[in-house]
């Protein structure tokens, strides 16, 4: 996992690393520039015209080092200097001195910015990094606005788009990047949906600062990586039988919303559950039996919605339960959820209308415990905790909720956040915009329920479910783009095991 620390800790982190390794800060900047160029070289051509805009701090220093390295590799580079370069940071100054004589470097005034022609294929933004401490103004603002208006240009931000603060929501303008290459770890604010339009595609470049150096600055926030997930998986042997893969129950559905339950149940099967049973109102029997023959179907007392109660003995036959998809929020289904929570204390995922009912009946929150995972999307979450001003507040409240109720809370969206009762928060690195489609959340519920049923700890079920759900979305949308539907995500689940090399 990549530890996410606050921008104000980065200077100290760098200082510790530099002194421990006996290297200079210039060397660390060189590593960062090299990591950027290694990625850049694979993606762009020598005949692309590249404009690199450099401020007077260390972000500008990165830009100048990148310019030198790309120039040496034969790229066509022009540097633009903005800000107070007479008082530039030491490493920025050094990198300016190291620029080859023949590499064009143009100092820009606010006046120049209005008139100069930016005829480039690629613009690299190294104006400001995490040292930004006020909204953009003057020549920085003028240049950012000008660059944002350019079309048919690939725009890349170094570390963070200029103008975005590392840990807060932006006020005013910022550079609008197609791609952001963040050094060592994604800066916290790059994960906020408010900033998605500025960040573009997010990539993290390793500059060699190893994990132990982050320890003292830890804020308990982590960015999930492939290898963290693979090692959380249980391995099953040659003699495993369907009992080992778990018996799960998925409860939900109502007249007109049976697809949600079917989607969750299919996802459980595709994730590997040995036996999947659906508990639905009577109207679901025919639909579920004919559309999903691999699942068993039980019907409750209600005709069109779940009603009455299920005794604890029947529920205890299952290794895990997922409840909520398509169940509706009527008085009848609310009563059903209340009785269910009274009778079942095992591993549980509560999603969708299950969460909406909790929001309407806060007394039910007393049933939450360390076996429970809640999976709200942003709107469901705000119904639960009240309106939030921005995503930062949402993330803070998600953690607060998880710690208060002792359960895991998964706040769905781009970079889905998994909040744990121990105060940690994991951010997902998989998934894409094509997953924003009806039923996608039901698929996640089915996947996590399946992992719980297979004997995964609640934390591992949440992490593996969220990560693999995103991966399945990426696979499913590769050739379908905005035409991706939730069933495609379900179909792609087995491929995620192939990528993770888990059988
Ligand atoms: N470990 C790493 O991640 C490394 C990151 N590196 C890069 O370094 C930057 C951070 O560099 P820093 O020098 O701290 O900050 P900036 O370059 O972002 O800003 C420089 C100065 O700019 C001034 N400032 C702040 N806000 C504004 C504004 N709105 N308009 C104009 N100027 C502004 C401010 O100085 P003042 O005296 O004017 O207040 C800043 O100090 C990081 O992002 C990475 O790119 C290292 O290369 C290696 C390790
Ligand atoms: K930048």
Automatic annotation (TrEMBL):
Residues recorded as binding AMP, renumbered to this chain, are 412-416, 441
The record's remark on the cofactor is: Binds 1 potassium ion per subunit.
Taxonomy of origin reads: Bacteria, Pseudomonadati, Bacteroidota, Cytophagia, Cytophagales
Q: For the YjeF C-terminal domain, which residue ranges apply?
A: 225-500
Q: Which NCBIfam families match?
A: yjeF_cterm, yjeF_nterm
Binding-site positions, K(+): 59, 125, 162
Q: Which UniProt keywords apply?
A: ATP-binding, Isomerase, Lyase, Metal-binding, Multifunctional enzyme, NAD, NADP, Nucleotide-binding, Potassium
Enzyme nomenclature, EC number: 4.2.1.136, 5.1.99.6
Q: Which cofactor does it need?
A: Mg(2+); K(+)
Query: What reaction(s) does this enzyme catalyze?
Result: (6S)-NADHX + ADP = AMP + phosphate + NADH + H(+); (6R)-NADPHX = (6S)-NADPHX; (6S)-NADPHX + ADP = AMP + phosphate + NADPH + H(+); (6R)-NADHX = (6S)-NADHX
UniProt protein name:
Bifunctional NAD(P)H-hydrate repair enzyme
Q: Tell me where on the tree of life, at the top rank, the source sits.
A: Bacteria
Summarize the protein's role: Catalyzes the dehydration of the S-form of NAD(P)HX at the expense of ADP, which is converted to AMP. Together with NAD(P)HX epimerase, which catalyzes the epimerization of the S- and R-forms, the enzyme allows the repair of both epimers of NAD(P)HX, a damaged form of NAD(P)H that is a result of enzymatic or heat-dependent hydration. Bifunctional enzyme that catalyzes the epimerization of the S- and R-forms of NAD(P)HX and the dehydration of the S-form of NAD(P)HX at the expense of ADP, which is converted to AMP. This allows the repair of both epimers of NAD(P)HX, a damaged form of NAD(P)H that is a result of enzymatic or heat-dependent hydration.
Domain YjeF N-terminal residues, every copy: 10-215
Under the heading InterPro entries, the entry gives: Carbohydrate_kinase_pred_CS, CARKD, Nnr, Ribokinase-like, YjeF_N_dom, YjeF_N_dom_sf
Subunit comment for this entry? Answer: Homotetramer.
The cross-references to SUPFAM superfamilies, in alphabetical order and at most eight, read: Ribokinase-like, YjeF N-terminal domain-like
Family in the record? Belongs to the NnrD/CARKD family.
- Amino-acid positions noted as binding (6S)-NADPHX in the UniProt annotation, renumbered to this chain: 58-62, 129-135, 159, 260, 326, 377, 442
